[in-house]
Amino acid sequence: MTAFDCIVIGGGPAGYEAAAIAANRGENVLLVERDNLGGTCLNRGCIPTKAFCRSAQVAIDAREAASFGIKLPAGEVSADMEAIVARKNSIVGQLREGVAMVVGNATVERGEARFTGAHEIEVDGRRFTAPRIIVATGSEPATLAVSGADLAVDSTALLDINSVPASLLIIGGGVIGMEFASIFNALGSEVTVVEFCKEILPQFDRDIAKRLRTALQKRGVKFSLSSQVTSITPAQGVMKQVSALAKGKEVEFEAETVLMAVGRRPVIPAGAAECGFEISRRGFVVDPRFETNIPGVFAIGDCNGICQLAHAASAQARFVSGENVDLSVVPSAVFTHPECAMVGLTEEQCREQGLEVKTGKAFFRTNGKALAMGESDGMVKTIVSAETGLIVGCHICGPHAADLIAEAALAISAHLPAEALLSTIHAHPTLPELLCASLEGVS
Fold first, then answer.
1. Sheet holding 379-385, edge to edge
2. 423 burial via Cβ count (<10 Å: 0-12, 13-18, 19+)
3. 124, 112 in Cβ contact below 8 A?
4. What are phi and psi of 17, to 5 degrees?
5. pLDDT higher than 70, residue 243
6. Does residue 172 contact residue 261 with C-beta atoms inside 8 Å?
7. Looking at the annotation, which residues are catalytic?
8. CA-to-CA distance for 100 and 37, rounded, in angstroms?
9. How confident is the model over 284-301, as pLDDT tens digits?
10. pLDDT surpassing 80 at residue 2
11. What does 115-168 look like in DSSP terms, one character per residue?
């Protein structure tokens, strides 16, 4: 049995951040990772999909080049999927090397960790112990319990596909589903999205979700909302048939490739339940300090089910390491075309909580930078407390939404009133001017 000061299980955004902080403080740290460093985010999620998003954006730009006065050789824009995947792999490989350097002061053990005691784990027959253990094992793609579910691919498989499917049906209109819908529509696939809820992006403000759906519909993406998938069956040739109940009626769809994008489920290390850890459907049950029911053992990131976002996982790692982090304000982004982003409360949540608020909107079509970019489709929506004048929510659909949301997140975290942003000079012409425009007349 080898003893360490701290054991971290999982080398994703939560795990490698926690391991690096502890090791750089001089602790003797063991980091256990069963696969590649970087976790889902780097290897199978955030970074690979953003590489795909960039290729998709270039394809869109090439098709629209003439509208900017740029003439390209005659012929259709086509996607070389093998080259797109190779570019993605190169980016991932480069960033993996960076993660290895970040955790350079920790001992890295490759293998599957299994709990053999409250403060003991086993990795390929070797046993380790520590008074402090941080579980950061992340999550994996979930699937529907329907007949033929094995005929669908998950997001991991789609990121290594060797050709653009002629048709792609996506089960699930959440963040993962919408990003792939936008990507493969741009690359030339005929895309259909089947979503159980009444609207895509159920966690987002309805105005923003509807605006994104409308934008994607204009690009040719088809949607079937309020639809419950009941089965997937083989069809003629390489096609698959997806059956669903849509508003009480049976409907059927056919596609060459079916993507299962119905969320993610926590990964729980073997032996955890047997060692007495309290585990729910969402993952490890933790207190406000992310400590499990067993003192000295913490669960951070996706495996506790609180917020399945890479930056939230990193923030939780910093929090359990004793750093000052505001965990109450977590921005979210969807890297579609156009992008969507949000932070704080939606208008619906304010209504449910009985909060009296004022809302303001500004449209990208009124912004000089957006018009010059040729991306005038979008909106910024801000929500301000009628009582305090504080910004309580911001929701964006439009170019660079993921970047624009940062200013609103800072304002909410720092409890800045809307007047503080309005009194701050913003460079012109820039997209951030839209945030101020949305606040005019609201504060």
1. 332-334, 340-344, 391-397, 379-385, 357-363
2. exposed
3. yes
4. -65, -45
5. yes
6. yes
7. 428
8. 7
9. 999 999 999 999 999 999
10. yes
11. EEETTEEEETTEEEE-SEEEE---EEE----SBTGGGSB-HHHHTT-SS--SEE
